[in-house]
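From the pipeline queue, job 12 of 40. The input is one protein chain; the requested action is below.

Action: predict structure.
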Amino acid sequence: MQYKRLGSAGIKVSQLSFGSWVTFAGQLDDSKAIECMQIAHDAGVNFFDNAEAYAGGESENVMGRVLKKCGWRRSSYLVSTKLYWGLHDGPNEKNTLNRKYLMQAIDGSLERLQLEHVDLLFCHRPDLDTPIEETVRAMSDIITQGKALYWGTSEWSADQITQAWKIAERYNLHKPQMEQPQYNMFCREKVEREFAGLYKELGLGLTTWSPLASGLLTGKYSSGIPAGSRASLKGYEWLQEKMVTPERIALVTRLEPIARELGCTLGQLAIAWCLRNENVSTVILGASNAKQLIENLAAKEYVSKINGALLKEIEAILASE
């Protein structure tokens, strides 16, 4: 496993990390979650991603119990969580980044995770109703209090990130260090173009999610929606509408010869493709079982095999979307 700095920060994250979205408390109970986290840890993964809203807080509960049972040295791993969606319906408790919500929500997450601090704390979405300065001050205060070590954003625009950074710079507050955008062969705009100026200018690090486009890039949807897949789960019907289209399935089929040439699976090809981007600090993996996770972790072995000629083939295929 290789480790990369999180943008300009001194902290290093494993090139592959493990996240709990959809799977924890949904597809993975405690026993399966501990199996997967132990496999990831043994493979060198040092970063585990979570969010307050995942499974209505239960994902954090599962990870907290797993971490306690594993008993790993706290300084040896990183844990993140994300705040915005909330767990309750009050006017100051959902879809917000106001100071009251943030200062209370971090305490709830730490209680569920059974940790004294998280290493990375994300604003899960931008809040257009709260002044960015209020959010920046609250996130900076959380770091000053020692409840988080670094803060960042998820699915913010380049302009919003820059505005938050400039506010922090002006008032000598803790600056946003990282962004967590979706990044895969079908979702590239933010990482490759919109954020292009932020990597050097702001030292922005990336913890990217959905390298397999929610499973589409594994080829599993080529013959329909299999039972147990993400697109088959209640609440994720949008995946069928936005991601699993005939046009994209056809593109995935055209990628199969390239994967065969490399001697890897389609999923491993997709993950290795993401890892090739030097601006990506870590690629977050998700898995519904141990076998799937082991296969995905092996993707790092194929990064160096994706040469210029293969990249051109891949780009030609993707350009036809």
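Job complete. The longest strand covers residues 78-83.
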